[in-house]
Specification:
The complex is a heterodimer of chains A (484) and B (683).
Chain A (H helix, E strand, L loop, with lengths): L1 H24 L26 E3 L2 E3 L1 H6 L12 H6 L6 H13 L9 H5 L6 H5 L6 H12 L6 H12 L1 H16 L3 H7 L1 H4 L3 H6 L11 H6 L14 E4 L2 H6 L1 H15 L2 E3 L7 H6 L2 H22 L4 E3 L2 H8 L9 H13 E3 H4 L10 H5 L4 E3 L3 H7 L3 H11 L19 H4 L1 H17 L4 E4 L2 H14 L4 E4 H11 L2
Parallel strand pairs in A: 3-4, 3-5, 5-6, 7-8, 8-9
Antiparallel strand pairs in A: 1-2
Helix pairs in contact in A: 4-7, 8-9, 9-10, 15-27, 17-19, 18-22, 25-26
Chain B lengths: L3 H16 L4 E2 L2 H6 L13 E4 L6 H11 L3 E4 L16 E4 L6 E5 L4 E4 L5 H8 L4 E2 L12 H7 L6 H4 L6 E7 L5 E5 L7 H5 L8 E8 L1 E2 L3 E9 L2 H13 L6 E6 H7 L13 E9 L2 H17 L2 E6 L3 H12 L1 H8 L2 E4 L2 E2 L5 H14 L3 E7 L4 E8 L4 H20 L15 H7 L2 H14 L32 H16 L3 E4 L15 E4 L8 E3 L4 E5 L4 H10 L2 E2 L9 H7 L5 H4 E7 L5 E5 L11 H4 L9 E8 L1 E2 L20 H10 L12 H4 L1
Parallel strand pairs in B: 2-4, 3-4, 20-21
Antiparallel strand pairs in B: 1-2, 5-6, 6-10, 7-11, 8-9, 8-10, 12-14, 12-15, 13-14, 13-18, 16-19, 17-19, 18-19, 22-23, 23-27, 24-28, 25-26, 25-27
Classes of the chains: A alpha/beta (484), B alpha+beta (683).
């Protein structure tokens, strides 16, 4: 009798499993979303993701949001909830808001403005979630329809320039830098140059950047004969220059390339476009797709000649975004497969080296950086699941001087342009990061994303000048240089 | 009459002056996002008020009470019974920012915290001092101390260390009318602190909590035992506890939850495993622990255990726990929604409860993993469904109700740690009779006459029509002597005769009895104690001398974890001469001043269905009701004697305003021990 019941219950479990697998494979089977409940009019569909690629398979926006069972286990990892104690500014709240909008229970999308615009998109909630509900993607979908698909002049101009006339973008940026160098940063601000370029981050960041480059990494790398694909049969790696290292932290890009050359043999510079994250987060999905397509095409051209190779990027945001390229093309079968292949080749520099790849260090080298710690950039730990790899390498270089950062996965508040759109919350998020850094008396904080580098350094300069944030590549490269 | 919108608008400036304009929120977004919690109920509040300091709470509550606007406190909103849903609108009091740990006193073993402190944050703060706070609900990563107290949360460790109520020392409460009180279970007189614990915000709001903290055990040993049938697994559980071993955790899961937890990954248990126990022991002495673990293994082997594994190191321990802790996440991935049901039965009844649960689930074509705290008979079917499928939701609700009814039929209760909230209100009708529900209603009325503090929670409302079951009162196995007491009380109530409730005269000396009060001697209530050896409980009548009761227990190889005390069982409870008696007291049968028989609590270790009347009556000195019989949790007789002694000052009792209010509700004519609450105060 008991056996029998178990059997029946077991069958039910199997059935449920089957149903849910089929539901996840075939979008919203069984739960049709009525037309009136859609978040956006049909003609706006190209400006949205056709489906979200979640941990539980491909889902419509509605199904992805409905997968949240409101257990609330994401609340304590959500920086904005932790700081404000408000459900409205929590991961669960944001998800529920989107669900209510789709279901028509929330009437006016404008009400969601505060909830959606305050999201750092850090993804800590997804890491904490058993069902891995992709809250950042859900929030972005909401923002897209709320913000009018990035149709304001600034973002349109910036993305357009970056996409179609990168030389013009570079020109404007250099002009801005020149103004800054001549000691008239306020003038640059007043001219609205940074904003025009869609990189408002730079306006604030100027205080945290010692010197702005007048030669961008791409220009330097293009001139490097070692990095040319011509004549090479096999390449071990291809360097993808993310916008941060390219336009702002040239030293990061150069350090990465030096490391790759030294420890991974022959490689090339892929001469990429922007990964498209900027356009993606501004709500301009069609533009993001265009960036993606160009990068994919470039990769395929090289692959046709040189066979498979990993595409290395040294900004976690950029690498994480490229790894998710497939999600941009779920409604486009031809491009979808190509995007998946490209995404499969992308590697973050943080995960690339193994400790045994690198030479042993001396005691003197280990103490050189003082107390060293590692900050998990959100798009590395939550976006790509990279946690162990960089730590293993850093430990090798620092020995006992490495101290684990408390709450190392707490966002620094940089989050792209967030520091400038939500200065108040951003400052509080950063404050907690700085306290944690100070609590272990760290002197060197190793990070893996440009945004963290700007944000944490700006914070440290003001509150804890004894420490500084250093990009992972630069840190490894400096050990490397000292060894010779 | 104001319409709803106006009533908040009218007082908004006043509220804003108290907490700041940005902290009184009435915008649509905030309203929408406070209309749900982790349960299934939904209702919109009219305002959300955010507090930045404890001192702001009472003044705001005063204003709301004056205006007749309902309110309820809310923290992380992870509760599973709809307790934080504003059924009548009104204001949500968001206490989440009140999250300071104010004091950790390892000498006195007390932590003073604000309600918003997350359970795990407290554990993390205690760890460097080598201490911990025992209640460990699965939600401890997010759920807060305030919420844990409101729901009287449990967790795996409560088998050994007790539920939240057992780990709270003192509470500061903002009562529904906005006054601030501090109560401890050690205060003389009826135990108001314990009444607050598990009251789900319907009697007041916790603003400070003094919690008991314990030194971290020096050694922990974990093992798993696989069985080919659930019956033998539970037999092993009973045998372990009967052997005098109290594990810090004794968890179980059935095959379906195991498979879900190990979905696709290597399942370390033998192929025909139907049930797995996770057994964890702790203590200061590793040699002794080793001996105990050997004994556990022997017990399991004697019960046909198929595979016993003791964790050799921390990694293996994690692996064993992964089977238990992975089960809920696995269910959460199988479907959009999971209903975590919560029923309790006396431990030996677990196999039967599980069999019935499985039958009910398959009748309604539902999928669920069964997890349970086997040590205390608490079962948690995790039923998966999709809330968008209305038919499925109906089936889930029906199945949930049937599972609860099955628990009641097996002598259990409808909630062990999740609370009643709104979702189990209807089940209160099945568990209790009208007189018990009426008694709960009086408690609510004493604290909150305007019914504004989290209204319509816990107690059934008109729409939850009684569904046939008559409740427990009919089941009480009353002795003829007890019936006589009841008849006598009825007669006296009719004629307005005052009663002095006396036992053996150990503490209540004749000279203290007020003139004109007719003694009611309970000496005759001294029937043979009913000892349930398997479940380790005993029901005993109130007039039996404690010493006699213990003699009987010891003869059966059992005991009470209490110091040696003199006097009748009922007298000891009524005087609270030893405050620790609350920890072993599970149930009471009482008669009110007008001779109404009621039964609260019972044979289960965990019970959060309704207010904690059992503990309230500890120290009630016969003035609230007459105690007829009590049910105690027993322990296996051990050599060592519980420390502590009698509180000499048991009778220096200055009634609090709320003691008086309760008295007026329970005994409006002041018939029982009338000298305790003086006449003028009662008028």
């Amino acid at each position: 009798m008991i056996k029998h019941d178990h059997k029946r219950a077991d069958d039910a479990l199997d059935k449920a499993r089957r149903e849910f697998t089929s539901a996840s494979a075939g979008s919203s089977a069984g739960h049709p979303v009525s037309a009136t409940n859609e978040l956006y009019p049909h003609e706006a569909a190209p400006g949205h993701l056709a489906a979200l690629l979640t941990d539980l398979g491909e889902k419509t926006l509605y199904d992805a949001a409905a997968q949240c069972n409101r257990c609330g286990y994401c609340e304590t990892v959500c920086p904005t909830y932790t700081l404000t104690g408000r459900e409205t500014l929590s991961a669960r709240g944001r998800n529920q808001f989107m669900r209510m909008l789709v279901e028509g229970r929330a009437k006016d999308p404008a009400d969601a403005e505060e909830a959606l615009s305050t999201c750092l998109l850090c993804g800590a909630c997804t890491s904490a979630c058993y069902a891995k509900v992709p809250t950042p993607d859900i929030v972005l979908e909401g923002r897209r329809s709320l913000d009018g698909y990035g149709e304001n002049f600034v973002s349109r101009a910036a993305v357009f320039t970056l996409l179609n006339t990168p030389w013009l973008f570079a020109f404007w940026l250099k002009l801005a830098y020149l103004v800054k160098r001549t000691g008239l940063p306020r003038l640059a601000g007043a001219m609205g140059l940074y904003h025009l370029l869609g990189m408002p981050g730079l306006a604030e960041a100027e205080g945290s950047i010692d010197k702005v480059p007048l030669r961008f990494a791409a220009e330097l790398l293009r001139k490097d004969p070692d990095l040319r694909p011509e004549g090479k049969v096999k390449v071990n790696w291809a360097y993808f220059a993310p916008c941060g290292p390219n336009f702002l932290f040239t030293d990061v890009a150069m350090a990465t390339v030096r490391l790759l050359k030294k420890y991974s043999g022959d490689g090339i510079f892929i001469e990429n476009q922007c990964c498209g994250l900027l356009a993606h987060n501004y709500g301009r999905l069609e533009d993001a797709r265009e960036f993606a397509r160009r990068n994919i095409v470039r990769y395929e051209e090289l692959k046709a000649v040189h066979g498979s190779f990993p595409v290395l990027a040294d900004c976690a945001s950029c690498a994480a975004f490229m790894k998710s390229y497939e999600q941009l093309f779920t409604a486009d079968d031809a491009w979808r497969a190509r995007a998946r292949a490209f995404a499969g080749a992308v590697r973050d520099i943080l995960e690339f080296f193994r400790p045994e790849d690198l030479p042993p260090t001396t005691k003197a080298q280990q103490t050189e950086h003082g107390v060293v710690t590692y900050h998990d950039s959100c798009r590395a730990c939550h976006g790509q699941g990279i946690r162990r790899e960089p730590r293993a390498v850093i430990r090798k270089f620092t020995g006992k001087r490495y101290v684990e950062l408390p709450e190392s996965e707490w966002c620094c508040g940089g989050a792209g342009a967030y520091a400038f759109t939500q200065p108040e919350i951003s400052a509080r998020v950063l404050d907690r990061k700085l306290r944690n850094i100070a609590s272990i008396q760290a002197e060197t904080v190793i990070v893996g994303a440009t945004s963290c580098l700007i944000q944490i350094n700006a914070g440290l300069r003001a509150a804890y000048p004894g420490a500084k944030a250093v990009h992972y590549s630069v840190f490894l490269d400096s050990n490397n240089a000292a060894g010779h | 009459m104001f319409n709803k919108k106006e009533r908040i608008t009218r007082i908004k400036p006043e509220l804003e002056a108290l907490v700041g304009a940005e902290n009184v929120r009435t915008d649509e977004a905030e309203i929408l996002l406070y209309s749900y919690d982790a349960g299934m109920a939904r209702a919109r509040p009219e305002a959300v008020i955010i507090f930045n300091a404890i001192e702001e709470v009472a003044p705001v509550v005063k204003v709301l009470y004056r205006e007749g606007i309902p309110f309820l406190p809310r923290l992380a909103g992870t509760n599973l019974s709809g307790g934080t849903i504003p059924l009548k609108g009104g204001a949500i009091l968001n206490l989440a920012r009140l999250k300071k740990i104010r004091q950790i006193d390892t000498g006195a073993r007390i932590a003073l915290v604000e309600p918003g402190v997350v359970n795990l944050a407290l554990q993390t703060a205690l760890e460097p001092f080598g201490f911990f706070y025992a209640p460990d609900p699965s939600s401890q990563k997010v759920s807060t101390i305030g919420g844990n107290i409101g729901e009287n949360a449990g967790g795996p460790l409560c088998l050994k260390y007790g539920v939240t109520s057992d780990n709270v020392e003192r509470l500061e409460i903002v009562t529904p009318d906005g006054s601030v009180k501090t109560w401890s279970f050690r205060d003389n007189g009826p135990d108001l602190m314990s009444l607050m614990t598990g009251s789900e915000g319907t009697l007041g709001i916790v603003t400070r909590a003094w919690l008991k903290i314990l030194p971290l055990p020096r050694c922990i040993k974990t093992a798993s035992a696989a069985f080919t049938s659930m019956d033998t697994a539970i037999a092993a559980v009973t045998a372990i506890i009967s052997a005098g071993i109290v594990p810090r955790a004794l968890e179980a899961m059935d095959r379906i939850s195991l498979e879900a937890a190990f979905n696709g990954r290597h399942n370390p248990f033998p192929a025909k495993t139907e049930a797995v126990l996770i057994i964890e022991l702790d203590g200061p002495d590793s040699a002794r622990l080793k001996r105990e673990m050997t004994a556990v293994e022997a017990v399991c082997a004697a019960n046909y255990c198929a595979n016993f594994r003791a964790a050799a190191d921390e990694a293996e321990r994690e692996l064993l726990w992964a089977a238990r802790k992975g089960a809920y996440p696995a269910m959460a991935r199988l479907a959009p929604d999971v209903l975590v049901e919560d029923g309790v039965v006396p431990r030996p009844k677990l196999p039967e409860a599980l069999r019935q649960t499985r039958e009910i689930l398959s009748k309604y074509k539902l999928t669920a993993g069964l997890l349970f705290h086997a040590g205390d008979g608490n079962l948690h079917p995790n039923i998966i469904f999709d809330r968008r499928d209305m038919q499925e939701v109906k089936r889930v609700k029906k199945a949930g109700h049937e599972i609860l009814k099955a628990c009641i039929d097996l002598g259990g209760t409808v909630s062990g740690e999740h609370g009643i909230g709104v979702e189990k209100r209807v089940a209160m009708n099945w568990l209790y009779g009208p007189s018990e529900l009426d008694f709960f209603g009086r408690i609510k009325k004493a604290f909150d006459p305007k019914d504004l503090a989290n209204p319509d929670k816990i107690l059934p409302v008109a729409e939850d029509k009684p569904a046939g079951s008559a409740g427990l009162s009919d089941k009480a196995s009353l002795s003829p002597e007890a019936r006589e007491v009841i008849d006598e009380l009825r007669l006296r109530a009719r004629s307005g005769t005052r009663t002095a409730v006396t036992g053996l005269g150990t503490r209540l000396k004749p000279e203290r009895i007020m003139e004109g009060a007719l003694p009611l001697n309970l000496r005759a209530l001294a029937g043979e104690p009913q000892i349930d050896r398997e479940n380790l409980t005993a029901r005993v009548e109130a007039g039996l001398p404690m010493e006699e009761f213990r003699r009987r227990l010891r003869a059966a190889g059992l005991d009470l974890e209490l110091p040696d005390l003199k006097g009748s069982v009922g007298g000891l409870i009524a005087t609270k001469a030893c405050a620790d008696i609350r920890e072993v007291l599970l149930g009471l049968e009482i008669a009110s001043a007008d001779g109404t028989l009621m039964e609260f609590g019972g044979k289960t270790v965990k019970n959060v269905a309704g207010y904690d009347v059992v503990r309230l009556l500890c120290g009630s000195m016969g003035a609230y009701a007459v105690i007829l019989a009590a049910t105690f949790a027993l322990s296996v007789r051990s050599k060592h004697q519980a420390a502590g002694g009698e509180n000499e000052q048991w009778d220096s009792f200055e009634p609090d305003e709320y003691h008086l209010r309760l008295k007026k509700e329970f005994d409006p004519q002041n018939l029982l021990n009338p000298w305790i609450y003086r006449e003028p105060a009662l008028k």
